[in-house]
Amino acid sequence: MDHKMIKGHGAALITILIWGTTFISTKVLLVDFQPVEILFYRFLMGFIALILVCPHRLRVEKRKQELTFMAAGLCGVCLYYLLENVALTYTLASNVGVIISIAPFFTAILTQIFFKGEEKLKASFFVGFIIAIAGICLISFNGSRLELNPMGDLLAVLAAFVWSCYSILTKKIGSFGYGTVQSTRRVFAYGLIFMVPFLFFTDFRLGLERFAQPVYLLNIIFLGLGASALCFVTWNLAVKILGAVKTSVYIYLVPVITAVTSVLILDEHITLMAGAGTLLTLAGLLLCQSNPKNLKRGIQNGQRKRKMCHGD
């Protein structure tokens, strides 16, 4: 694996490590904030941070490219999070966690449609997908009874599909040749613009005095600077290097990181079922990322070494 690929996998892993812990900050803020308020403030803070990091204006060369940035902002910043938050009001969080994890499958299908031949799918991807989803189900439900809610579950499916659209759009943006920070900043700008109309149909209020409490201020800073500004840059960089499909399968790790974080920070106990689910999820992820040719070559090399040891 060359340096560039290591950089791509590292960027994806850093992103998922942070995204897997955001539930703690969100949980703290939900005591006194509406979901749409958290969403708006975190991306506004992320947008401002990206301006400070890279103040140079991005000059888009073609109108079609501008439309791509707009679509990415609508999908990845506005619609995905709104659909996910609304889905949580109708169905169980465990349902949403499992359903969102099918996003890599949608991403793979869309990649085959719009980028034919660029990221060929192997049988290992689909086998890994099934194994990872089985593991995620064990982690998410953890012995609890499955309760379906058509409205909430459908919204979660739409959220997963919208995120896969964002991944495809990010791949397209990566081919434009612009800087990752500047591109992410432009996506944030359009996401915030599309978000504003929704604020008038919710219980949104400024309430800036709430940030006078250090616990709220620190958690929104973590979500704004870490989970939004930093993570969207690293995620977009990973997509640019690895491709949409290989990057998207890292989403499988979110429930694993969430479970581990719950044990370390919230002092929750991990069950045997959750432990088994973690192992299955990791196995599915590794299988999705594996190259069957390299695996076959490794097996052949191993057999050759054994023959040499036995003097055959």
Automatic annotation (TrEMBL):
TM ranges: 12-33, 39-55, 67-83, 89-111, 123-142, 187-204, 216-237, 249-266, 272-288
EamA domain sequence ranges: 7-140, 151-287
InterPro entries according to UniProt: AA-Vitamin_Transporters, EamA_dom, EmrE-like
Keyword annotations from UniProtKB, A to Z: Cell membrane, Membrane, Transmembrane, Transmembrane helix
Entry membrane topology: Multi-pass membrane protein
Pfam families: EamA (PF00892)
Cellular localization per UniProt: Cell membrane
GO cellular component terms given for this protein: plasma membrane
Family under the similarity heading: Belongs to the EamA transporter family.
Stated name of the protein: Drug/metabolite transporter (DMT)-like permease
Organism: Murimonas intestini
Organism taxonomic ancestry: Bacteria, Bacillati, Bacillota, Clostridia, Lachnospirales
